[in-house]
Amino acid sequence: MGYPRKLTRRFQAFDNFAISFTVINIISGIFSGFGFGLNAGGPSILVFGWIGVSVMVLFVGASMAEVASAYPTSGALYFSAGKLARRHKGAWSWYTGWLNFVGQVGGTAATGYAAATFVQAFLTLQWPSYEPTGHRTVLITALIIVVQGLANTYTVHLVAVLNRISVWWLLIGLVVIVGALTVIPDQHQPASFVTYFANNTGFTSGLYGGMLGLLVASWTFTGFDASFHMSEETVRATVNAPRGITRAIACSAIAGLLLMLALVYAVRDYDRVAAADAPPVQILIDGLGVGTAKALLLVVIGAMLFCGLANLTSNTRQIFAFSRDGAMPGSRWWHSVSARTRTPVKAVWLAVGCSLVLVLPGWWSRTAFTALVSVNVVGLFLAYGLPILLRLRLGDDFAHGPWHLGRWGRPVGIVAVAWIVFSSVLFMLPHAAPLTVTSFNYAPLALAGVLAVATLWWFTSARRRFHGPVGYGRPDEVAAMDLV
């Protein structure tokens, strides 16, 4: 791909799959977004929306996997955009990279925020006198993200081990939670309950309220580009990276549907659960009792912490690669690699700092979580869509890698781009009515702010020096530069 090797290839096929499966993290995504879905469409959107979004995301993932097989680098999306564009390679690469950056930062922030919310739910069960507040949520989120940054700085080998453990934590946790919700409660909702629709968003249009509920599944299915970003640390990346992407999505779709059904059918009093501060926790308490609910809540919190750790790891690899080509302020800092760990430590702390900035509005905003989720979903999926669009424009000129879709590549790519455009517009719209300072969806402002800075910088200076991914020389010259 034209780069000297700086990162050690320590990831096997399972490790590459594990990091995307962990970042998708069905337990974290479903538990954190379930309450929003109950009020934006109810069981019908939670279940059938999950199935529909899973299919659409699999189209996106398959198209991305085809590109990943052709360009297996840490730069991933922005690198491939620069290589696939016929003209204006620098601009395509530039905007793809910045969208990917803000989307991943949003993912790290949203996952940490979700974990902090459920930590407070556990503390409330353990000590009833504890009072959860928005300020405490922000502070706990900051602590979580900083600890994850320290782990990526000082215990890199442990992080790799934790990524492997996380898969089994998710799978075993899923079996335990689904089994408990299926067997223990003395009553369940009737089979027809999955068709129940509810619109408690404040908007008069049930169609609009129901479409907003698709955010639950879309938020869960983000971050599978992690397998792409870890390519330079993966053995046989041209095959294992695309397999990691598609397998992570497919496994998450099936396992997530089982978890979604278990939670939906365990709802006892719909109105009471939908109005709760943490609806999934209320479901666990109603069906399993406080003691069991607390134990399973620890499983959920653990899954969220694993998810945030993997997301931060992927985030730093994107920053490392983008900076390697001089596309970020202070690039020489962010693409430097620690001599001890062979990882981009400074990039870790840039990701941590930017995530903390995105979390700050949670100090006053009651829609902070859904705004963070929107930043994550829209930023990432637009970054996913640009290389896929460019691959479609190339047509038969696209030089595919060992893993490819053959004649299905074009129709799959068209569906993927159409879904990305639709969902990106939808999730930038208001999430609650009436619109106030505390209910405003600030995701458009966050994304617009980053893109405004990127655009200003591009036209004032970057377009004269940034022309896309940098080539360091011929393959034999690059091989001579290998540092590991």
From TrEMBL:
Gene Ontology cellular component list: membrane
Coiled-coil positions: none
Principal subcellular localisation of the protein: membrane
Residue intervals passing through the bilayer: 21-41, 47-71, 92-118, 138-160, 167-185, 205-224, 245-267, 287-312, 347-364, 370-390, 411-433, 439-459
Topological category with respect to the lipid bilayer: Multi-pass membrane protein
Record's keyword annotation contains Nucleotide-binding: no
InterPro entries in the cross-refs: AA/rel_permease1, Amino_acid_permease_CS
Protein location: Membrane
Keywords recorded for this protein, A-Z: Membrane, Transmembrane, Transmembrane helix, Transport
A Gene Ontology BP annotation from the UniProt entry: amino acid transport
Signal sequence, start to end: none
One GO MF term: transmembrane transporter activity
Highest taxon above the source species: Bacteria
PANTHER family: AMINO-ACID PERMEASE BAT1 (PTHR45649), OS04G0435100 PROTEIN (PTHR45649:SF26)
Descriptive protein name: Amino acid permease
Organism: Streptomyces zinciresistens K42
